[in-house]
Target: Alkylation response protein AidB-like acyl-CoA dehydrogenase
Amino acid sequence: MATQPMFFSPLVDTADHHRELRESVGRLVGKFGRKYYQDCVKRGVEPEALWQALGEAGFLGVHIPEEHGGSGGGIAEYNVVVEEAAAQGCPLLQLVINSITAPIIAAHGSEAMKAEWLPGIAAGTKKICFAITEPDAGSNTHKVKTSVTGDGDGFVLNGSKYWTSGINVADAVMIVARDADIETGDGRSALSLFLVPTDAPGLSYQPIDAAVMTPEKQFVTFYDNIHLDARALIGKRGAGLRQVFVGLNPERISAAAINNGIARFALAQGAAYARDRSVWGIPIAQHQGVAHPLAEAYIHVQAARLLNARAAQLFDLGEDAAETANMAKFMAADASLKALDQAIQVHGGNGLSYEYGLADLWFIARLHKTAPVSREMVLNHVAQHGMGLPKSY
Model:
């Protein structure tokens, strides 16, 4: 099995220091590698040693302000970290969650909240999960039923969420709730955003038996008459939807980065196997029927990586990155599945063996065609905002 995926760096890096960051992350995560990640999944444990190492090296906080324990970089740097971890065979979904929660707290959290949570996120000693999805309110966030009501100086939270990743190992959950006390003027309640300790009385969860083979588990979460004090509110009451958008474009960029990393890992494995495997006296890589599909997959992956790097750059510049981030996630999902499928095909029957580290990546890659925003909603966004076509939903 190949141990060092190709870096592909000259094309996509948007700053001089990205190459050094890319190589540093690759070396660190490469010491753990695909077998370590697979073992964590098999045993049902978190990759704590890897997570701790990433935190100690400063890689978990590259997008967090220096005054709060980070490196003061942006999503462009975080894109490199997420992609390189996946390129070493370790696609960490918690990194995607951190791309949502840390920017939201940095932008809208109180000074006390920033001081309490951001240094821990950067160091890898604290984890926050994110809860927005509900069974009857997938892409339509306005329809969330989980609600809060005012209670003196605090709040009472009730409801449930679906597909909440990693709440079993998180210290708190960032939750989007309908604020029953505030109307938006169109008959709907405004949304507010809260940070709820996972040991709060009234919070419970049940696992979802899912095909995605990751250390991070998925849960249905329940919030039954949870009493929150005023410090749990993030930002301004009733402005939760606007505040959440601070984290949604980084989420799409980080999801794309995971898929781009998976694609790079798959192509590296496929190319190495094709060079080493000989049939009738010559390497199978010498046949165009093997080489050309890998080369075509490589081209698609490079295009997806280039688009994602541009999305991260636009976000860090404070420009509108919504269309670019959505398109980057769309392309990365499709390109990674093409690359992974071809790498599996090159391996023949071995491609279906967990020993070669490819087959169990399939549903992780497939996940991002559906989440964090479906490909259909991406197409809706591009049709409406990029092409000026009438809204279709």
